[in-house]
Design brief:
With 377 residues, the protein is of the alpha/beta class. It is built from 12 helices and 16 strands. 54% of the residues are buried.
């Protein structure tokens, strides 16, 4: 993720990846150590480490039946993630491979998600994309999918397993990027407000680990944690409550719901502070408006189009192509100095729209117009 990323400490996520590489013999479909030349579209699907294994499945004849077993859908990111999947699946070069795309969202209910995965397996789907509700508890469905010849492919919110292919941006690096930015802007003393996501998910855990790995080196910085659930309204209330208790903050790190978090600063008549936050269009509009008043923001996106990358990976695997067991997708970001209306933020689009709609390095090109038309449809 460019030169701004420097790993300060190994996270549990990387420990899991290392463990996965050490257990090649028992992992599903593993066939050695991933090398750039030996896997499909290596510019997009980068091995997580030099020891990441390669996944390979027997080829099946298209078209395919593919499902998404989604968990939480109560925020704009998850909604746009689903819309991105549908929009990408309808593009002509992709649609020819798909016989059926089925999407089920179950909320934060692990039992319901496991049941939905089992139903998809029993119904003969070829591949099941998974936005995991929890990091554990999936061993049974992994075994059932293997026996049925079904590909399970978690993305974004991952599970603790080396037996299925997985796709994500590096959440630890995302947390490090935000934390390093805030420290660079505010200095090495003061109070930082960290607004976390949904408890129990790998995304929240790993981003927080990244933040901690940076801030622990600055004893003069005190961190206050609140829960925002990646939602504007929840984050706005959480920040407002934190301000009422602690008063002024010198920096803020927000996993998602950044527009609401910044609005809470404005409503409380707080002095603008540096913010490391998500890629919401509203946050970027506020960055453009208040940059001269001190809102020196960095907007780095966990791209909703990861769902499209996961679909691309599933189709490749079903065609018999090889991929890293754990793929690292580059993270797009902009600072307040980089903003360009109509390019990386959109003054006339909703605040809860995520501005980075495409992942060009992966060949994923989805326009805002496609998403909005699909949303209206």
């Amino acid at each position: 993720m460019r030169e701004l990323f420097r790993r300060g400490a190994r996270s549990r996520a990387l420990a899991l990846v290392a463990a996965a590489a050490a257990m090649l013999a028992s992992a599903v479909g593993m066939s050695g150590v991933a090398q750039a030349a030996s896997t499909y579209d290596s510019a997009c699907f980068k091995p997580w480490s030099k020891t990441t294994a390669v996944v390979h499945y027997p080829a099946k004849k298209p078209p395919y039946r593919i499902a998404l077993a989604n968990g939480y859908v109560g925020n704009s990111w998850r909604l746009q993630m689903v819309e991105s999947l549908r929009a990408y699946a309808e593009q002509p070069q992709v649609a020819k491979y798909i016989k059926q795309l089925k999407i089920v969202s179950v909320g934060n209910n692990e039992t319901a998600q496991l049941a939905s995965i089992e139903n998809f397996i029993n119904q003969g789907y070829d591949a099941i994309l998974v936005e995991a509700v929890s990091t554990t508890g999936y061993n049974r469905v992994i075994r059932e999918a293997k026996q049925a010849g079904v590909i399970l492919l978690p993305f974004d919110a991952l599970i603790n397993s080396n037996k299925v292919p997985m796709i994500n941006e590096d959440q630890v690096q995302l947390g490090q990027l935000w934390a390093n930015w805030v420290v660079k802007q505010m200095g090495d003393k003061g109070r930082v407000l960290e607004i976390r996501g949904i408890e129990g998910t790998s995304v929240d855990r790993d981003i927080h680990d990244g933040v901690v790995s940076v801030l622990k080196h600055y004893p003069g910085i005190k961190t206050i944690d609140v829960i925002g659930k990646w939602d504007d309204g929840t984050s706005e209330r959480a920040v407002a409550n934190a301000i009422s208790v602690y008063g002024h903050f010198d920096g803020m790190i927000e996993q998602g719901g950044t527009t609401g978090a910044v609005r809470a600063l404005i409503d409380a008549h707080q002095k603008m502070i540096p913010v490391g936050g998500e890629g919401e269009n509203g946050f970027r509009k506020l960055m453009a408006k208040y940059a001269s008043q001190g809102l020196h923001g960095l907007s780095a996106e966990q791209a909703p189009a990861l769902s499209a990358v996961a679909l691309k990976a599933a189709i490749a695997l079903l065609q018999g192509k090889s991929l890293p067991q754990m793929s690292r997708i580059p993270i797009p970001y902009v600072t307040y100095k980089d903003l360009k209306a109509g390019v990386n933020y959109y003054p006339n689009l909703p605040d809860n729209f995520f501005a980075e709609t495409s992942i060009p390095i992966c060949g994923i090109h989805i326009t805002p117009q496609e998403l909005l038309a699909h949303q209206k449809g």
